[in-house]
Every structure is written in structure tokens, then in C-alpha cells.
Amino acid sequence: MPELPEVETIKNQLKHRIAGRRILRVRAPDPRVIKGCTFSEFRTRIEGLLVRNVSRRGKALLVALDGAQFLLMHLRISGWVEVSRGEEKYTRVQMEMEDGGILHFCDTRALGELRLFRRGQPVPFLAKMGPDPLALSAREFCGLFAGRKGRIKPLLMNQRFLAGVGNIYAQEALFCAKVHPARPADDLSGRELKRLYRCLLKLLRHAITCRGTSVDTFRQISGEKGRYVCFLKVYRRQGKECPRCGARIRQTRIGARGTAFCPRCQQ
DNA sequence: AATGGGACCTGCGCGC
DNA sequence: TGCGCGCAGGTCCCAT
Length: 267
Prior knowledge:
4-stranded antiparallel beta sheet, alpha+beta, DNA-binding, 11 strands, 7 helices, 267 residues
């Protein structure tokens, strides 16, 4: 699923590829992903505009445009972005750039979204978003847990608590830190929280250098897969051996999400 | 505040 | 081969 490292990858590549270029034409083979306005309004508002910058907030991509507008792109579960000339079966919206490249917003399940905002207009999703783990010190990370009572895994995945961590990296970080995913967050010692912080950052940075994880539909903007898959230790590895202790990886459900963990080394 | 369920979607793997 | 079913998951929304 596109989480922080995947969205960071797209942001870096897209910035390089479309910033400073103009959007010539917009087409929407499937306008369902356009939220907040109709396709014709969407088209009218952005055709001809220059792309100023591309940035990331949590799992959201922000494309800053001329005219004090920005385009929020969210890939949700099964979205990706490709820049190419060819057609793509799952293209929901495409933007033709002035250099001839075509930005495809692709999504097998069509749950992703594109939303236009004007500068100053409130964006509820962003306003409620927690801090980015890459911008936190260990001390700040540990401080987030004060007064929180939930189970650790859903808490890590709660975007209002921490922005960018989803089901893959939450499972991997808890495995790395040897923490059971159902542990109450307020039960973790300071030492465990610090270990969790170090693990989470190590793994997010590593995944970014690998250009993300392609377990499902995620692709880089060139269409290439992300290479972090071969480093996954527990995610979708239930029934296989724990790479650390050899026990059998178990799968359970926590907060209505599939959760794999090692029953021996995660306590 | 936390938890559980449903909704949105479609491809896939399973059992029959 | 083919059908129906349940699962996968990010976010929002509602109920408890």
C-alpha cells in the first residue's frame, strides 16, 4: 500500500518530472476519483496552469499550482502515478504536460482521490494530521504517547497521531522493535518506545532508498517496482519462519486489519 | 478516548 | 472452466 516511503518516492520523482512545467490538457476516463467538484470544473480550473512544486504530507501528495491553488492527490490503497506516453488500463485521470509527458493517476480500486484547493481554504484532512515521523526526534516521538491508551499498532497507523505509517510499516516496525502489536501503548517502557522509534525511522529511510514496497499495485512513476519487498520480515509472511528466531509467523486481526507477527520474539 | 462495524472498490485466490 | 465468496486495505462515518 502506498505509505510514507512510497509517497515520498513519487514526490521526489514527480517534482523532478513536472515542476516548472505547464498542464496542457486533462482527461478523466473515470472521474469518480475527483472529489469536491465536477470533472468539468476540475478541468477548467487547472488546464494551462504551471506546476510550482510537489510536496508530501503524510500519505498525501500536494501539487502546488499557479493561481494560488493546489492539488491534493491521495493514493489510498491501490493507487499509483505514472508518467508516460502510453495508455494504461487503470488510468482514472490523466494530465498532459507541455513537454508531451502524460501524468496518469492510476488506481485499480478507484478509492484514491484528487481534490483541488485554493490557498487559505481549510483542508480538514491535512489540518487533523499528526506529525511526520521523519521530522521527529526520539524525545518528541516518545512524548506523543503521553495519555494515549490504545493498542500500539492501530495507534501507529492513526494518521491523526502520526502521519504516513500504514499497515506494512507498522507491522515491520513492531517486529523490529520486538513489540507485540496488541500491546497497550501505555504499557510500553521508555526503552521500548525509543527502540520502536529507531526501528521505524531506520525502516522508513531504508524503504525510501529502495523506492518503496511493491507488494500490490504500487509503482514508481517510471512503472518500475519498488525494491523494499525483499526486506519485509513479517508482512504477508504468515506461516513462514521468523527470520530472527525461526518460530512460525502468525496472522491475526487487530482493529479490523490483518496483522502478522512473531509470537516468540514480539512480546 | 477507544473500538467495532460498514461503506467505498476491484482483483485475486479459494472451495466446490 | 466457472461461479460465488471473502479478503485485501486508507479513510470517513456512525454507533457503542
